[in-house]
Amino acid sequence: MATISAAVKEIIEKRGLKEADIIGIVDGCGDDKIFNKEKGLYIAKKEIGDATVYAVFDEAGDVKSAYSHKMKILDIVLPGEEDSGWVYVKNGQPLKNGHTNLTYLGATRSGPSLTEPVSGNSWFEEYLAVGALTTAEGLFQQKRA
User: pLDDT at position 136, please?
Assistant: First the structure.
């Protein structure tokens, strides 16, 4: 069962995420998650409404962070060759530092991501989701207004 500290609850709240959603992601992901042995962390994701929500947690199920982005993940553009240190638990394949197409408000762009070409899945790390992707979403919204 996932647990969330008071400090992480504060981060989740500031980011407009729901604690119940984060717990649901951790408790319901099964082996559909990525793992970084060096960091001792997992990342699982789920599309909730118009957002992709991520939970970062350890082997005990303690949530370390959570974040989201509204850009819809499309397809891998460049699988990459450099190992990222992450492994897709579902099939044991190493993730590469690659690029993935995303779309938001009718605009499609490529962005750096963790890619697993065998399954075709991509993940975006926290620094990208709360930084570059959030900035891009804001720019697309301004352009549309």
Answer: 86
Token pair in block for residue 26? 């951790």
User: What stretches in the chain show pLDDT beneath 50?
Assistant: none
Give the Cα separation of 91 and 34 in Å (integer).
10
How are beta strands 3-4 and 62-69 bridged, if at all? parallel
Which residues does 141 contact at the CB level (< 8 Å), separation at least 6?
A: 105
- The answer to whether the pTM exceeds 0.85 is yes
β-bridge partners, 104:
107
**Where does the chain have alpha helices with state H?**
6-14, 19-28, 126-128, 134-144
* Close Cβ partners of 1 (under 8 Å, ≥ 6 residues apart): 23, 27, 61
- The domain locations on the chain are 3-144
CA distances from 22 to 94, 105, 108 (A): 25, 25, 27
